[in-house]
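for the recovery benchmark. tokens below, seq after
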């Protein structure tokens, strides 16, 4: 394997990691449908869960404990705001060469939730 071939493989892996990191961040921070929950409403539900867990049968208790764990995670995430600007800047640099190598279209990126303005900055157009 030549040094050029090794460098090309390494570059492809780097581009893939960059694109993956940005797409995962978009998916993680995608707004949910419906009414937004507040930390207050989540805390109130956690309080009610404690009471329900005490009187529930074992199977229902298991479900309520999982709900409690999910709500605690959600409450922690509410305290941190996602800043994907650095990932976006790296994505803008990597997206076009990655898309050209893998034959990925504008429409495919849009369907995954990549903003049109980001794709424009990356040099990926509809045509």
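predicted aa per position
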């Amino acid at each position: 394997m030549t040094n050029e071939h090794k460098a090309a493989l390494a570059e492809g892996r780097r581009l893939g990691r960059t694109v993956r990191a940005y797409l995962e961040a978009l998916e993680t921070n995608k707004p949910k449908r419906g009414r937004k929950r507040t930390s207050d409403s989540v805390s109130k539900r956690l309080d009610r869960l404690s009471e329900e867990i005490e009187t529930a049968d074992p199977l229902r208790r298991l479900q309520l404990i999982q709900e409690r764990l999910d709500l605690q995670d959600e409450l922690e995430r509410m305290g941190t705001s996602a800043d994907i600007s650095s990932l976006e800047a790296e994505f803008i640099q990597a997206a076009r060469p990655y898309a050209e190598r893998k034959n990925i279209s504008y429409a495919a990126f849009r369907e995954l939730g990549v903003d049109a303005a980001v794709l424009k900055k990356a040099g990926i157009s509809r045509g």
